[in-house]
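fold-stage: in
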Amino acid sequence: MARNDTPSNEHLAASGHIIDLPPIAPLDAPFSEEDGLFLDIATEPQSYHQQDENDLGTGYIRLILPASYLSSKQKLLRVESALPESLVSYFANEVDVSQLNKIDKHLWMAGLERPARALHQQLALGREIIVTEQADAHMLWEGSHIYIKPLPDFVLCHYMWKEYVCKERDLFGKSCGFLLSYIWLIGRQSDLLIAHERGLISRSIS
């Protein structure tokens, strides 16, 4: 395993770059509401193409959450969109790197701390992209394989940041680190095409 393509930490991190958050610093979404992709949560099952009339022409789509998810303790939990604690638990599970944090102080031996290579560079190095839903395996590579977790849709929803993510410091830091990893991975049009082909990001991003 190598570290140079591995984002991780307990505060705000990506590829080993750790930024401590001041204890009383106000937290805000890393992008404006206008720059977000998703409007808010879809209250009823629908596809990305079934938007409300008020959303048509705005460029926004409603965030669709799964009905359930498997927690780190291998428990099947239901996502209750009306319960803030349920949403926060789901979001935290999506960016959970607790296992990686346990060995973080030893990862310097695996490689240099530096920004991750873009997707087109990963392919140029002969690495096969393996999709993983395990956050603490995100951007770890071994031999000719690199493991990448798809970008959760909630990370691109300003409403979710404002109402939930920014109110949980640990969740905020990990979500920022995850978003930063995709800023590194997708820097050019070719990277975006690769991400779409591998199912790493929503096809609504163009």
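fold-stage: in (second)
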Amino acid sequence: MASYNRLAALIGKYQELAIFKKFQTLNVKSLLYMQAELLHLENELKDIELDDESSKDIHRASLHTSVFNLKESSGSDYQLQWNKAMEIRDKLERYNKALVLFSQVQALPAPSVRDLRTFQEWLDRPDGGDFFLRGREAEMWEDEGDVLTLSRHQANKDTVTGFVNDVVIPWYHDLRCRWDKGAQSGDSSGVWHYQYHSMVAVLNGISTFLASLLPSTSIFMLYFLESSVARLAAIMVFTTVFSSTLVLFTKARRVDIFAATTAFVSPSHLFALFAQDD
């Protein structure tokens, strides 16, 4: 029977389906409320400080010049400023923690379209969730712009990995299901799972092969080109292929791509110059 227990077991088994609602609007609203509350408290503290400073009571007037006196005022007739400061400290600490937590939540990646569709379809399938969620709870994953994933795979995906995972594998699975009707059932949870690590291993092998092949191939090609214009054109082509490979197979920053491309093209320039001199 479908239940939260079965849903939890599914998510525990497949980390790609660890998809949760972000509650972005609620988080922002809570921060705005805390911000407004602190603003009012800050103004209240300023008013209290002005009253204390203008007081004819020597002890009360000294509160703004001595933290020791301010702290010792607790329990006295002029403890208002210290109490207000402590109230602000408590709320400010919670506000700062909320800001940090919200920034961490915002940094979590969104799930892939394929993983989200798989999750939504499982909730509706008779052999899956079988519509066990009712009322408002059934709407938790409807807003696709307000969900996040805890999957480490999604955070580490490069362009090619994302394309293979979201396009190639679904296409392969659909093709497989047409030829093998038994492939439609999946495992006991009704989900077909393709090993992510196997896919990454293959793509890592391809990227390593290209990283080894491109530099040597460019030098090899330049050796057989006699025209200077042809050499320069070949350098442009290989440089473009190299930088494009970095963009597609890695998550390198732009500055790293520029640096790596410059390092790649420098030996080619030297080779072209020496070959021209010869």
